[in-house]
């Protein structure tokens, strides 16, 4: 009883602390901007970009251009060689190793100043849930976050590994005793073997919090259900909170509802190797609170302008709701005007809340339609509504050169429970896509494209594909759509 009161008190205190930057976002961003510029004046990057002369955002825009990984790679390679004071003071504590769409493997620096923001933001998301829900019982059981191996390699004195593996080294002491799985099991590299061992260890435990990227938690749940022939809510009777991030949960919602067997609270997180950007601060919300106490300075470029190579950089003072922006960040790990590669949309300006709408490089515009991830997910979710159809996974690609007839968008879908009439389902899905994207609608009505075509993927087909390319499990995610057929051609093979 006393412990429960202390947990709720901790949540209340943290909520009060966070209210200062939530209510004063522009002051928080100005403080962050000043701190970043002052801290990095004597770095190689700071000297190269006249940080000693930067007094405001206009100066910053003039001196520091937007960069993606390829354009900042020259500096990062110097850091990887062990050189200090390149992008940030000293050397980074870690390099987060991540797969790039065009850059191959990327090495994102994490400094001693920035690692705490990854941990504290995740903590605040859970404490915010407790503040609003009053549910402190979640800490009276075991917790698991399905993640990559925490085994790290050392390159020129800098520990290197996956973000989730790095974060595993910084789990707060008050969670050490209740976290699952064991360290040795967490270090297993083979994802399928790891899941089997995790199941062996967790089946006998009182699991209250389970987290991870939805497709890999789904695999964990499915294997448990196969072993026990029971829904997850019967196996883990006190399981009451699912924490996820990395992908939109909506396409998986019906699958999870069937696997769990009851309604359950969820928290969505928006972490990345570059920083922890946002989290769902209130139960039941579909948008995320933009985190402004994490020493990240945010800029935004309208997606339409970005596609035209017009890089007008906006701050939080300039953004409007329901408009898609490319997010640009500067961080206390040494990323400067860095294009994260994500597109976001503001749903509220008081406080600043966002939805992630897709990836800059993940789109279809083979015919000028520029369909983004949010649109295909929304169209599919609308089509699934009030049906018994369940989708395991999907991706979309253009078919530019069909053997006959007009080109079209080809949807590769793995169904758990397929529709009775695929043609009827395809028709409704295409109608939903036309509602989501006016350019797509014009191409259909103008007979430039024919309505979309669905191709069924065999059971576990996407997992087989991910395993063959070495990305099964952990933080790896399947792109929702692509502007070429590189993914679907491998699926077809």
Describe this structure in words.
This protein is an alpha/beta fold and 493 residues long. It folds into two domains: 1-360, Rossmann fold (3-Layer(aba) Sandwich); 363-492, GMP Synthetase, Chain A, domain 3 (2-Layer Sandwich), CATH 3.30.300. The protein has 19 helices and 20 strands. An eleven-stranded mixed beta sheet has the order 6-3-7-8-9-10-11-15-14-13-12. Strand 14 and strand 15 (352-359) form a beta hairpin. The N and C termini lie far apart (58 Å). The mean pLDDT is 91.
Give a quick rundown of the structure:
This protein has 19 helices and 20 strands. It is of the alpha/beta class and 493 residues long. It has two domains: 1-360, Rossmann fold; 363-492, GMP Synthetase, Chain A, domain 3.
